Amino acid sequence: MPSPRPPYRVAIIGTGRIAHAHAEALAELSERARLVAVADLDPSRAAEFADRFSVPHVFNDPQALLESEDLDLVHICTPPQTHVPLASMVMRAGVTALVEKPTALSLREMDQLAAVQEQTGSRVLTVFQHRYGAAAVRLRRLADSGALGRPLVATCETLWYRPDAYFEVPWRGRWDVEGGGPTMGHGIHQFDLMLSVLGPWSQIAALAERQARPTDTEDVSIAAVRFDSGALATVVNSLLSPRETSRLRFDFEYATVELEHLYGYREEHWRFTPAPGHEGLSDLWTDGDEPDITSGHRLQIEAVFDAWETGQEPGVCLQDARRTLEFAAATYASAFRGVRVVAGELTDDDPFAVSMDGGAVPWEPVKEALV
After folding, report:
1. Banded pLDDT at 1 (limits 50, 70, 90)
2. Which H/E stretch holds residue 307?
3. Residue in 169, 101, 83, 88 with CA at minimum distance from that of residue 328
4. Per the confidence metrics, is the pTM higher than 0.85?
5. Which of 57, 108, 280, 283 is most buried, by CB atoms within 10 Å?
6. 54: Cβ–Cβ under 8 A, 6 or more apart, which residues?
7. Which of helix, strand or coil describes residue 4?
8. Is 69 helix (H, G, I), strand (E, B) or coil?
9. What is the per-residue pLDDT across 251-293, written as a single tens digit (0 to 9) for each?
10. Distance between CA atoms of residues 183 and 217, nearest Å
């Protein structure tokens, strides 16, 4: 009987709030992975993080971390504008990068990552953890098998609330740092899950506005979407909604599948309704003994390890993440140009491939310049 492989050696760059979710997930996977190093420009924050999670090595320079440690995976948990240079640095060190969303601030940056990936043979993966909950995996399996019939209608809503004070953090609400508003930083998890179920989209017609918040970006966007399958969907991303909820609904020929949660779902947050004459599909929905774990970072990290150990490509790969980012770019392009945008249209030097604002935001900036 072969001996078990030693735990994967993992590091985290950036020790802010989201890094805690990564470290907690790794702690739950302690038999398979060891968090051996962290890096952060703020030495005191890095030291506090390392003490809390019993991390043996602390750096204030990510390059020094990569030169000093033998690693299998590096989690990048820094502000969005740093994702591309850090992921490139990690890949050039021969290590897989797992990057918090959004992977990059533009389609052009995604293509730069693809070039580094091609040059190095290393991989960059994106954190879209909601793809990995048991019910989402089951839904994709049933949809792909044809058991639910054709997808016809879908609704995807991220209705969250962020007060004015949220934007007092200097880097929030800035196109050059976050890449956009709720379309890029909040709703992207929900519509990524929608895209993973419904597949390629073909065109988008959208609106985006700054309705109420002191931000340079939008605080709400709404899109109508047509998919290659013929399905139609609406997508709403809002930071203006006092009763917060994240909601997805898929109407197939033979069943409706609904999800309502906030920041993570369990089995209880899903509802399956078969069409008349197709009641037997309920047995397929409840068939299985998957662990009822909240959709979160642990499930995606675990899936990466599983893929490595079975010789498969782990998700979410750069190509998949690019499709999701293209959806965001097309939402902005449609909203600010006032036209429908077709998939694949935003190429090369198109302003909306270069940056999410496309140089066409119809309102004046209000954020002070970063020093």
Report:
1. very low
2. helix 297-309
3. 101
4. yes
5. 108
6. none
7. coil
8. coil
9. 999 999 999 999 999 999 999 999 999 999 999 999 766 778 8
10. 10
